[in-house]
Specification:
Largest sheet of chain A: 7 strands, mixed
Largest interface: A-B, 61 and 54 residues
Distance between the termini of chain B: 53 Å
Order of helices and strands of chain A: HEEHHEEHEEHEHEHEHHEH
Structural class of chain B: alpha/beta
Oligomer: heterodimer
Radius of gyration of chain B: 21 Å
Strand order of the largest sheet of chain A: 3-5-6-7-8-9-10
Number of helices of chain A: 10
Shape of chain A: globular
Helix content of chain A: 25-40%
Number of domains of chain B: 2
CATH architecture of the largest domain in chain B: Alpha-Beta Complex
Largest sheet of chain B: 8 strands, mixed
CATH architecture of the largest domain in chain A: Alpha-Beta Complex
Number of strands of chain A: 10
CATH superfamily of the largest domain in chain A: 2-enoyl-CoA Hydratase, Chain A, domain 1
Helix content of chain B: 40-55%
Distance between the termini of chain A: 43 Å
Shape of chain B: globular
CATH class of the largest domain in chain B: Alpha Beta
Chain lengths: 285, 316
């Protein structure tokens, strides 16, 4: 991966430099997609409707009103346990930081969404699988507290494999911390909306993500507690078709809506305007 | 079935018992030899039990004969009355709970329940709860709050059940709700990690004002086997994962994840369950005493502060 990038950078500037990068392929149906168009379509395949993963920065652009986003995240992770598996955790952190240009797996800030003041937190799956360690937990707790203090709604876009193993019990404790911080919004009667994207599993689903006032899920997103591989190993059977996908969760009553990404902002705005006590009655967003 | 590292100790103990028997039946004086072996046994025990690895402690935490939640409820408490059901779907045998007295104090209790033999283990799903188990726990938290009685929980699970039925019924959702419900208790809450503290399934009943842990229990975000399977790609590297996860009582105390360690008899709680249960009772009484005098709101805020401050990061 890194090698490939190195080559790309060194390629001499010429007419055909960007040609191979103008096009991409749908992960689901294999359709050739013109990248610019694909991006404008919010990473949804225009042919089959498959929702691809979205880089955190672009997720912010999709949801925050233009020009309103002010970043509030940026805490740095530590290696409290000196964790080493096949590689030291500290080394893995450096690699992820270089790759993503981010300190940890979350990007957040204050903004307005459809005019409603909000704190928007977006988990970054590209950073250690969006896993929640001390930094992610603290950023979420601070985000919730800040929203409460400033009369803002809280919106969290989840994308995570769960709690981060390399911080072990401290990661586990972030589940309690994040859940408890939501009480501050409760006390101020401020809305909290979560958007579950592909994938949202483990300790993230089983803490703050599941406790929103309104829960959206993106079509086809894998959402659950245990990952499908673990379940398959436990029950030693193939899993039913569509198991743990957003539509399965809707059917079982766990999420409010499965919403196409291209309509997500409109629906989110409708919910925020309805629930935020500071927004007066207004029909038709 | 003895644990691998216990074997030399058990063999020596057997040898001493045999010599005693020989001396008794034959009348031959073997005192000097027996004393020698006993000294060797004491040294061996000190050597093995004095330097237990994380993985050996994990094995002790799972040892057959270790006191389970029901053992503690029956022996450390009085008049335990089990209450069943989640009022929505079923009664989950992997979580038990009800009413009890602790030295005359009214309390509400909940805990994971493993089986004490294979048959019971199958019935109890090896202490891995389904969503209905956590709903039962939440119902009992409601009860504690409504009547103002302390809430005590006992943690002993490899993890919440990872299966199709559990996912269909919202395993992640009930764990999140149980964490939230427990954090909102307006009564004193104490959690004790008895054996295994496996991830979110453990934390769901672990959001207490004080969290205690047995000397040889473990508590972490993932079991050593699963961690090894993911990070080392081999479940048999579990001993390495156990070391790396810093999941022993002493490690957790240093991290602030637990507040106190309850000592176990030499060789682990399964060697002398009654002694272990006595230690548990003393620790619970002492901890409850320490929470006396806090108002309902202070108890809520105390719990919030306890968890709000956990984590390691640097300001940007």
């Amino acid at each position: 991966m890194a090698l490939e990038r190195l080559f790309r950078r060194k390629r001499p500037s010429g007419e055909n430099r960007d040609v191979p990068e103008l096009w991409t392929k749908c992960e689901a149906c294999g359709a050739q997609l013109y990248k610019k168009e694909f991006r404008e379509n919010l990473y949804v395949c225009p042919k089959c409707g498959h929702h691809h993963r979205v880089p955190a920065v672009e997720r912010v652009e999709m949801l925050a009103d233009a020009g309103t986003f002010q970043e509030i995240t940026g805490l740095k992770p530590l290696d409290p346990l000196g964790f080493v598996d096949t590689k030291p955790y500290a080394e893995r952190l450096r690699a992820y930081q270089e790759e993503t240009g981010r300190k940890d797996a979350i990007l957040g800030g204050t903004c307005t969404i459809g005019g409603v003041p909000a704190v928007l937190l977006v988990m970054d799956y590209a950073f250690a699988g969006g896993s929640m360690g001390s930094v992610v937990g603290e950023e979420i707790a601070r985000g919730a507290e800040r929203a409460a203090a400033e009369g803002r709604a809280l919106v969290i876009v989840a994308a995570s494999g769960g709690a981060r193993m390399q911080e072990a019990a401290l990661s586990l404790m972030q589940m309690a911390k994040t859940v408890m911080s939501l009480d501050r919004l409760w006390e101020r009667r401020l809305p909290y909306v979560s958007v579950l994207t592909d994938p949202t599993t483990g300790g993230v689903t089983a803490s703050f993500a599941a406790l929103a006032d309104v829960i959206f899920a993106e079509p086809g997103a894998l959402i659950g507690f245990a990952g499908p591989r673990v379940i398959r190993q436990t029950i030693r059977q193939e899993l039913p078709e569509g198991f743990q996908r957003a539509e399965f969760l809707l059917k079982h009553g766990m999420v409010d809506r499965v919403t196409d990404r291209r309509r997500l902002k409109a629906e989110l705005v409708q919910v925020l305007r309805h629930l935020h006590p500071g927004v007066p009655y207004a029909l038709g967003v | 079935m003895p644990l691998e590292f216990e074997k030399p100790i058990l063999e020596l103990e057997k040898r001493i018992a045999e010599l005693r028997e020989t001396a008794r039946t034959t009348g031959v004086d073997l005192e000097a030899e027996i004393r020698l072996l006993e000294e060797r046994l004491a040294r061996l025990k000190e050597e093995v039990y004095g330097s237990l690895t994380a993985w050996q402690r994990v094995q002790l935490a799972r040892a057959p004969g270790r006191p389970t939640t029901l053992d503690v409820l029956e022996k450390a408490f009085q008049d335990f009355l089990e209450l069943h059901g989640d009022r929505a779907y079923a009664d989950d045998p992997a979580i038990v709970g009800g009413l009890a007295y602790l030295e005359g104090q009214k309390v509400v209790v909940v805990g994971h329940q493993k089986g004490r033999d294979t048959k019971e283990n199958l019935h109890r799903n090896f202490g891995m709860p389904h969503p209905e188990g956590y709903r039962k726990a939440m119902r009992l938290m409601d009860l504690a709050d409504r009547f103002g009685y302390p809430f005590l929980s006992f943690i002993d699970t490899p993890g919440a059940y990872p299966g199709v039925s559990a996912e269909e019924r919202g395993q992640a959702w009930v764990i999140a709700q149980s964490i939230q419900r427990m954090s909102r208790l307006r009564v004193p809450a104490i959690a004790l990690i008895l054996g295994e503290g496996g991830s979110g399934g453990a934390l769901a009943i672990g959001v207490a004002n004080r969290v205690l842990i047995m000397e040889n229990a473990w508590y972490s975000v993932i079991s050593p086997e699963s961690c090894a399977a993911i990070l080392w790609r081999e479940a048999k590297e579990a001993p390495k994962a156990a070391e790396a996860l810093k999941l022993t009582a002493k490690d957790l105390l240093a991290q602030g994840v637990v507040d106190a360690i309850v000592p176990e008899p030499e060789g682990g709680a399964h060697k002398d369950p009654l002694k272990a249960i006595q230690n548990i009772k003393e620790a619970l009484l002492k901890t409850l005493e320490g929470l006396k005098g806090l108002s309902p709101e202070e108890l809520y805020r105390d719990r919030y502060r306890r968890f709000r401050t956990l984590g390691a990061y640097a300001e940007s």
